[in-house]
Amino acid sequence: MQPIKYKNYIDGEYVESLSGEQFLDINPANINDVLGSFQSSTREDAEKAISAALEAQEKWAETPPGERGRILIKASEILDSMKEDLITILTREEGKTLNDSRVEVNRAVSLFRFYGVLASRIHGESLQSSELRTHLITVKEPVGVVSVITPWNFPIAIPSWKIAPALACGNTVVFKPASYTPLIGYMLVEALVKAGIPKGVINYVTGSGSTVGLEMITNKNVDAITFTGSLEVGEEIRRQSALAGKNIRIQLELGGKNPAIILPDANIDKAVEMVARGAFGLTGQVCTATSRAIVLDKVAEEFTRKIVEKAKKLRVGNGLREGVDLGPVVGQRELDKVLSYIEIGMREGAKLLTGGRRLTGGEYDTGYFVEPTVFADVTPDMRIAKEEIFGPVLAIMVASSLDEAIEIANSVDYGLAASIFTNSLDKAFEFISRIKAGVVKINKPTTSIEIQLRFGGYKKSSTEPSRELGEAVIELY
Fold first, then answer.
1. In sequence order, what are the residues at sequence separation of 6 or more whose Cβ sits closer than 8 angstroms to the Cβ of residue 142?
2. How confident is the model at residue 187 (pLDDT cuts 50, 70, 90)?
3. Could you tell me the domains of the chain?
4. Catalytic residue among 93, 94, 104, 253
5. Beta-sheet pairing, 30-39 with 22-27
6. Tell me: the pLDDT tens digits for 279-301?
């Protein structure tokens, strides 16, 4: 049976790519499960989408904010009505568990409602002048055409938190989803179409970053770029945009190497639960995942023993099955990367306490499954302590004091999220003031964010001052 063929959506029409070629969308838990075929688009396809967005932008910007908001709220309602189908598709397409997919789909529903309401509340400033009978006002205006390039790990939530505010502000959008997860993005666009979005306001183009993505970051008619993904790709986006002579708004979220510090006065059992959730939940494929546990020496043995016990109890499998704690990594390339970092860790002298292998046999043979992995005896100079792995791998490091723990935590190139486990309010506030991270948690996992609060990191994790989510993202668009 031939897979369903999905088309691009450009200027209000579903169209095939000029290339005439497609790629397959495959379930990472079962590579025999094909969700569909998608367009291997060309730069010319992307150019057509950008031209359509440019043509539609002025009229969309002139549309009353209340009407723009009404369409976004209607899209939220449509997504909510599609929820059960979306949850199943998300699990089949990305691999995460049904519970995790439910959380993400609900987040997308909330995001469109949030920015639908916010559309009518976007405002400038009113200021006193230094001159008589003169009044000063500022008015927020949309930037224009926005290129939205999104990752596979949150393939409906991240597009929602980029697209919804961009549309609310009066911009038009060209959206390229990750090639691992194009179907859930297609369904998101479908909800907007059903909600009555005018033609050209939202455009959907699938394909590779080297073709579609390159056009989206270098085309002269693009006014802003928002991207979430790897550090390497983000730096290339900056480079290519500069080479094209573009001086536009670029928002990049590029990952993290997120620490959790565990102090002797902490509830160790709770710390173990929270760190395990942050490290192994969603198979560690989260930019805010806990990849480093920095434990003070007095409780290092207890914490290490208990986190290893916890990791061994986690159930790995197809996310469609009940009782599964973590699914596969998303593809062969990502599996190879995780396994290579595990090999690097062992070569560098870290002690492998549990996990470290690809799972095989039975259903594992048709998917990309890896064991939850814990390393001890990790030092700050090791690559597994410094580089983003994007898999279920936790590096345990030991510190003699809070000062040393914070120094280790701040020693990497990233600064996205961090947490501390302590019952001391003084130490918690000291941590808050000294840690170089954009998202800081107390007695909570580094993962999970709330849509009403701005999101972004320090150092190489994010571009500053651009922030996503909340009302802060309005400044970008």
1. 57, 61, 169, 170, 171, 477
2. very high
3. 8-254+462-475 (3.40.605.10), 258-449 (3.40.309.10)
4. 253
5. antiparallel
6. 999 999 999 999 999 999 999 99
Are 324 and 315 within 8 A, CB to CB? yes
Residue in 219, 449, 235 with CA at minimum distance from that of residue 227: 235
Strand extents, DSSP E, 211-275: 224-228, 249-253, 258-262
What does the alpha-carbon distance between residue 387 and residue 144 come to, in Å, rounded to a whole number?
36
> Is the CB of residue 51 less than 8 Å from the CB of residue 145?
no
Cα(162)–Cα(237) distance, integer angstroms: 17
CB atoms within 10 A of CB 236: 16
Separation between Cα atoms, residue 456 and residue 449, nearest integer Å: 10
Give the closest residue to 380 by CA, choosing from 415, 352, 347, 408. Answer: 408
List, for residues 94-113, the tens digit of each pLDDT value: 999 999 999 999 999 999 99
Which residue do the tokens 């506030």 mark? 429
Taking the C-alpha atoms of residue 92 and residue 106, their distance in angstroms, rounded to an integer, is 17
Pick the catalytic residue from 287, 334, 371, 468.
287
Contact 61, 143 (CB under 8 A): no
| pLDDT (0 to 100) of residue 363 | 95
- Please confirm, yes or no, whether 169 is among the known catalytic residues: no
**Nearest CA-CA partner of 290 in 313, 262, 269, 315:** 262
Say if residue 424's pLDDT is above 90: yes
Query: Structure tokens of 476?
Result: 């970008």
Query: How far, in Å, CA of 292 to CA of 307, rounded?
Result: 12
Does 287 participate in catalysis according to the annotation?
yes
pLDDT per position as a tens digit, 401-413? 999 999 999 999 9
pTM of the predicted protein model: 0.97
Is the pLDDT assigned to residue 321 strictly greater than 80?
yes
